[in-house]
Amino acid sequence: MTSMFSPGAGTTAAIAPLRAKWGWIVALGVVYLVAGLIALGSVAQATAASVLIVGAMMIVAGVFEVIAAFQVKTWGRFIVWLLLGALYIVAGFVAWDNPFLTAVWLTLILGAALVAGGIMRIFLAFNMKHGSPWVWIVISGLVTLLLGVIVLAHWPVSAVYTLGIFLGVDLVFAGAGWIGLGLGLRNAA
Fold first, then answer.
1. CA–CA distances in Å: residue 55 to residues 40, 49, 112
2. Between 6 and 117, where is the model more confident?
């Protein structure tokens, strides 16, 4: 029987290059972990930083959408692509101009999405076949629903810290995952 850290013969050769770089993987995890702790230490700045990154991505996506529109201008949807690209560019600049106002609306959308996602998971869990691990899906749905309700109950004030907390927690867990992988690879060597 093989486990995650004692792979079979075929897998051993495939992960050999990773094993040789386990230290770099741990270092990546440490960088993620430190960045996450910094984000959790100043959630308002982390919220602003995440909104600025989203704004920059929207501007880049919008520019490429406009370029794509001109590449396919013979297709009947040229104006739709052009307007969509322009909308992304404008939204990106709005995010850059006022990141905390943007965070207010992103937090509202996030809260609503969490509530909807939680309700859907609970609904799907109760429609799963008997004998399947449906209880875990219900628990996951309840946690997601609860997070959404908390975010919405404190909205718009929650906009100052919610995105920063989510970013920080994500970075901490990603860092822990990379560290665990790296140390597991070292121990498997």
1. 21, 10, 21
2. 117
pLDDT at 15: 76
DSSP string, 85-141: HHHHHHHHHHHHH-HHHHHHHHHHHHHHHHHHHHHHHHHHHHTSPTTS-HHHHHHHH
Location of structure tokens 């690879």: 185
Angle at Cα 124 formed by Cα 121 and Cα 125, nearest 5°?
85
Half-sphere exposure of residue 99: CA atoms within 13 angstroms, side-chain side? 18
Residue 169 in tokens:
């927690």
Structure pTM?
0.72
The distance in angstroms from the start CA to the end CA of the chain is 18
Radius of gyration over every alpha carbon of the chain, rounded to an integer in angstroms: 22
Of 160, 148, 153, 43, which Cα lies nearest the Cα of 102? Answer: 160
Q: What pLDDT does residue 1 have? A: 45
Side-chain half-sphere exposure of 145, counting CA atoms within 13 A = 13
Task: Show contacts of 72-80: CB within 8 Å, 24+ apart.
Answer: none
- d(CA 121, CA 116) in angstroms, rounded, equals 9
- DSSP bridge partners of 3: 6
Q: Taking all residues of the chain, what is their mean pLDDT, rounded to a whole number?
A: 88
Q: How far apart are CA 134 and CA 131, in angstroms?
A: 8
